[in-house]
Amino acid sequence: MRALRLVLGALCGAALLVSAASAEEPATCVSRDPLKRPWFGDLHVHTRWSLDASTQGTRTSPADAYRFAQGEALGLHPFDADGRALRKVRLARPLDFAAVTDHSELFGEVAMCRDEHAAGYGDLVCQVYRGWPRLAFFLMNARGTPRFSLCGENGAACLAAARGPWQEMRDAAEAAQDHSDACRFTTFVGYEWTKTVQSASNLHRNVIFRNEHVPEVPASALEALTPEALWDALDRDCRHGIPDCDAVVIPHNSNLSSGWMFAAEALSDGRPMDADHARRRALNEPLVEIMQHKGESECRTGAGTTDELCGFEKLPYDSFMGRFSRFARQTPAATNYVRTALGQGLVDRVKLGANPFEFGVIGSTDTHIGAPGLVLESGDYPGHGGAGIPIGDALPDSLLDPIEYNPGGLAVLWAEENSRPALFAALQRRETYATSGPRIVLRVFGGWGLPGDLCQGDFAVGGIAMGVPMGATLPPPPAPVEGADATPPSGAGAAPSGAPAIAISALRDPGGNGDPSTPLQRAQVVKLWVGEDGAAHEKVVDVAGDARNGASVDPRTCETHGDGADQLCAVWRDPEFDPARPALYYVRVLENPVCRWSTRACNQAGIDCAKPETVRTGFEGCCDPEIPKTIQERAWSSPIWYTPAN
Amino acid sequence: MLSRRATGRLLFAAAVIALPLPWYLGEVEHAPLVRLAFFTGIFGRVLWAEGATGTTRLFFVLGVAQIVLYATALRLVAALVARALAGLRSPALRTWVVAGLAIALLGAGLLPIYDTPLSSHRARSSLLGVFD
Questions:
Q1: Hey, are the CB atoms on A146 and B54 less than 8 Å from each other?
Q2: With an 8 Å Cβ cutoff, are A128 and B46 in contact?
Q3: What global pTM score does this model have?
Q4: Residues A497-538 pLDDT 10s
Q5: Cα angle: A454, vertex A460, A464; to 5 degrees
Q6: Which residues make beta-bridge pairs with A443?
Q7: Where exactly are the structural domains of chain B?
Q8: Is the separation of the CB atoms in A60 and A369 below 8 Å?
Q9: Which residues of B touch A124 (CB under 8 A)?
Q10: A61-65, A410-414, B125-129: lowest mean pLDDT where?
Q11: Partner-chain contact A138 B39, CB within 8 Å
Q12: B52 touching A, CB under 8 A?
């Protein structure tokens, strides 16, 4: 064993040297760590420049949002007569990075309707915007093309006016970026491309640029009508049009897409997916947002899976129409979910020779109050707005968000330092994971030679030297070597020799500054593979921790009971590995149960479902049996793929 | 003294102005028909000025349909109540009852009894904020 450690140490040292020498970005930060660190942030943030945010009373500017992300207090509507905010929020723990991603479609219209010197200020549509903003939300938000007449011929006036908000977003990102070698905070210029199809089925995507070199005007869904057109625009206006410009596109809310987000055809012309299209999609869209304010998109119990942990933060409808009309509600199908798409991607690789859904995962908030990282399951949760509940001039005596919504999640990037080049490279190589809010530290490696006692040594050093990180594809299996290590990994069971191992390390969120710290319950590996029938199959395996650890929470008091783990670590070798079958593995780590935000808010409001007289208007959802009282917060890793050589 | 027809019209007008009714225009409101008519009018104006595109047309049609439905129903109920009141022998009493009903409706409307999620100011409104 000692000899093995020596060999491992030598290998690691060599790997680190190589890694440092071939690093993609120059060392700029004093805290640079070649073993990489997890950086916590939010890549989905709306401010006053998004129509839906501004028509709900959000006044937060992009600069305000970045200040909030760094720990400053943020005033929220309602405001008093003197413009003072009547609510304040502050992050207990600042974020490491953030991107303001306002909806680009109506930048110009919003700017013109707010600027009394603008040509279109007196237009009827602008009068509605200022006089009846909630009505304007429905009037303007889902209009599509053509633009309103206030925009002039071909929308030229609005496109010109859009430069104002866009420039403000760019300036705010530059101003908030820590350009010193302390590298305390990173910003990305970004925006949301906001397309819906059919009955408000969601195709929304965030565009995150590598740096400050970005197009003069973002390509919105009013000009780039399909995802393919968006990729074209990014090629034309960014990658081929501006030196050093690059971007990643991150789809979100596939749970609201009625299956369109992961459609089997090109949306531009309806042709079935082919290899070129699949490659293009994977290149442009290396990530998907799996968790946010408007629900979680991993999987749904009963929709193609029996996994009982897929009931987490599910919306009871499959498009935005369902949010606004109960009559239009459709139960979401399996095709709405990331797990299904990941499996379909494996099938497509076999059929087409390319995987269109080779994506890693992140979480974010999709806040529409400009409060990145405000993810606490708190009774004081102010609601993130958007398609949520308008606040008006006074706080309503009700829940402040639709009860099926949640505070959102976080994006976590493994990178050597907190700088734009390092974080953007992490996005591109998918070395990312998502959490539903807690700052769980999750590290995953996959490899053929990962030793079974990796958890007893230096996990990161060994993992880097002998494996690939989350988001990567396993290299081809090595040829059997005589006398190789035969130490069985934990939980290996009857694993065939030559099967890949997945090494998992998860650390409990330490909390702090008032943020809670909840013990970990268990870690699971989710394996997807293509079966002999040519279809995708799945298996979920507990690999560390204990599902029956006795932990519980009393929903009446939100007091938690029972123990859990501060740390979970395991090396799991796939006992059913078939080298002829494409497969992927991702990791899900669960905390012990805690009260959901709505349970806390209902308790604070004195709602007792046993006493109907306490259930006031606006709190009816507190007693809805479909709404869970408790949740298990969690983290999801990006997958590690295995592709057979043939 | 109020005629039966005038009684019906007065009750109908009071109901249109003040009776909270559930209707849908993106959000479900419990508010008077006059508010629905006002908002539908806004959509109509935009429709006229900007042309018939998806959501504007949808909301306008939705508004008009609900207005027609509710107006017909209210007119019918008002006529039935007027007919019942016509049975009262004393015209003065009839007038007082009608006036009392209308005043009660309008008076109640001065309290924040309407659910108005489409309002930019308040989730519960009174008649004073019915056009907000």
A1: no
A2: yes
A3: 0.92
A4: 689 999 999 999 999 999 999 999 999 999 999 999 999 999
A5: 95
A6: A505
A7: 4-129
A8: yes
A9: 45-46, 49
A10: B125-129
A11: no
A12: no
